[in-house]
Design goal:
heterodimer, A: alpha/beta, three-stranded antiparallel sheet, B: alpha/beta, Rossmann fold, four-stranded parallel sheet, globular
């Protein structure tokens, strides 16, 4: 499994430059330990629901979903001593607002080098919000095959859905206002593990 | 880096960062063509018109495939079968295409500057697919993309361009693009086919083919454009092959892994021997494959530069 190691290519993709923005932090929701415990619990739940790792694969949505998928796979391996295939999905080309995005969307590579037909696919993303990213991801997966099932794991569900989509595994439910943003920071790209709520201007 | 140009007219105007954005976006698009379903919905509902005033198979089909893999609708207009024969001007044709609510015109024309003139007169996007002797930006981009894929970098590599430099828009676009990205470009041709001012573009010049091959990491072999022969300055075909043709014997004195490129169509036995064209150093067919990814990248970038913007949501 390959993950683009270049932080400059990672930062500033999905939500502009929020991770470096001067917006005001309101509250820390998860620290390093709590984040790791949430991932471990989700890993257990995935194994319980799918009765092990048979036909199981994880597909993370760029950018932070890809890192979370890798970390979940490590948790699963620690619990079950089985490795599961991990893929990376870039949903840019499937967005419903593709040509409208302010910063000019950056297209990154999709890397799914295993067959997803008849597999149980767990889609992984950092924050579930409107549901439009997941809608795009479902469309994209359609072009790769016909999984037996697609499940959704997110670290944070912040509400405000605009589509009939829900997660199967949630690290933490965080009720938010529309003018707030949930930032998931991960060691692999942001130097530390934490989830914070920030206030938009 | 954000792409803001509605048109791609040449590589002369582009910054290093813009060139790099096209190339990295193309890397992502290359994967699409390896899928079982080779299509993404990025340009769904957009219309691309291929407007070709010169014969072309490779470039037109490549643009057509690229547009289709982005889910755009494609219309092809060839000048021989269109109102151009009734005397319609390029600008009038362009304005009519705009009135049909097309989004992108891909234009190939025998006059240098045609694409630029068209772009000034329509609001929709214009992509230059070759204008006279001026530029053929997507060909150079796919050449550079192929080099980067093979060598891992462009900065500091030695690229020799051999052949009819004077009549070659491919050579001009390659010189602009490669030198902006830090490659060293050497052009090699009979002196009558080296246009004045080529050094000012950033290339060195030689008339000695062995010197051109000696230090090259890659050689881009251009087609001898005998159809442009006006009867005076052209070498005889056989003489050209003898003095400048890329043969296995000449390559044996070059770097072992030298990359051999050719934009096509190939004239076997004139600028390149069959043995080399089909040999291990040749990446000629990979260039064709990469052309799709590069053109998808260009069509995608110019199309999204057209739209009004808002902040994305999750």
């Amino acid at each position: 499994m390959r993950i683009n190691p270049e932080p400059s290519a990672i930062l500033g993709q999905k939500r502009g430059k929020t991770r470096e923005s001067p917006m005001k932090e309101k509250a820390k929701i998860l620290d390093k330990d709590a984040l790791q415990r949430a991932l471990m619990r989700i890993a257990h739940e995935i194994l319980e629901k799918n009765k092990g790792t048979n036909d199981l694969c994880l597909i993370g949505i760029r950018n932070r979903g890809a890192y979370l998928a890798k970390r979940l796979a490590e948790c699963i391996e620690r619990i079950d001593r089985e490795s599961v295939p991990v893929g990376i999905l870039d949903i840019t080309l499937y967005r419903d607002d593709l040509t409208l995005i302010a910063a000019g969307p950056v297209v990154h590579k999709t890397e799914i080098d295993f067959d997803i037909n008849d597999k149980n696919v767990v889609l992984v993303d950092d924050v579930l919000y409107t549901g439009r990213t997941i809608r795009a991801a479902l469309d994209a997966l359609n072009d790769f095959g016909r999984p037996r099932s697609i499940q959704l794991a997110v670290l944070v569900d912040r509400g405000h859905r605009e589509l009939p989509i829900r997660a199967d595994y949630v690290g933490k439910n965080i009720p938010t206002a529309q003018n707030e943003t949930v930032e998931v920071r991960l060691e692999d790209v942001d130097a530390k593990d934490e989830v914070v709520i920030v206030q938009k201007d | 880096m954000t792409w803001t140009r509605k048109d791609l007219l040449g590589l002369e105007d582009l910054s290093k960062e813009e060139l790099e954005l096209i190339l990295t976006t193309a890397e992502s698009f290359k994967e699409v063509s390896t899928r079982e379903i080779k299509k993404v919905p990025a340009l769904r509902g957009k219309t691309v018109v291929n407007l070709f005033y010169e014969p072309s198979t490779r470039t037109r089909v490549s643009f057509e495939v690229a547009a289709m893999r982005l889910s755009a609708d494609v219309i092809n207009i060839a000048s021989e079968t269109s109102s151009v024969r009734k005397g319609e001007t390029l600008i009038d044709t362009g304005k009519n295409i705009e009135a049909l609510k097309a989004d992108i015109i891909v234009v190939r024309h025998n006059s240098s500057g045609a694409a630029t003139m068209l772009a000034r007169n329509v609001n929709i996007s214009v992509v230059n697919a070759g204008d006279g002797w001026h530029e053929h930006p997507t060909q150079a981009l796919l050449d550079i993309f192929t080099l980067k894929e093979k060598l891992g970098r462009i900065e500091g590599i030695n690229v020799s361009i051999v052949g009819d430099i004077a009549h070659s828009r491919v050579a001009r676009s390659n010189i602009w693009g490669l030198s902006k990205l830090g490659a060293k470009v050497l052009v090699c041709a009979p002196s009558m086919l080296v246009p004045p001012g080529i050094e000012a573009m950033g290339a060195q010049v030689t008339t000695d083919i062995d010197e051109a091959l000696k230090n090259a990491d890659a050689v881009n072999v251009l087609r001898m454009q005998f159809e442009r022969d006006e009867g005076t300055a052209f070498p005889e075909q056989l003489d050209y092959f003898k003095n400048f043709g890329i043969t296995a014997q000449r390559l044996s004195k070059a770097k072992k892994n030298i990359i051999v490129m050719h934009p096509g169509p190939i004239n076997r036995g004139i600028e390149i021997s069959s043995e080399v064209a089909d040999g291990l150093n040749s990446v000629i067919l990979e260039q064709v494959t990469n052309g799709i990814a590069v053109r998808m990248s260009v069509l995608f970038l110019v199309a999204q530069a057209q739209e009004k913007k808002h902040e994305p949501t999750d």
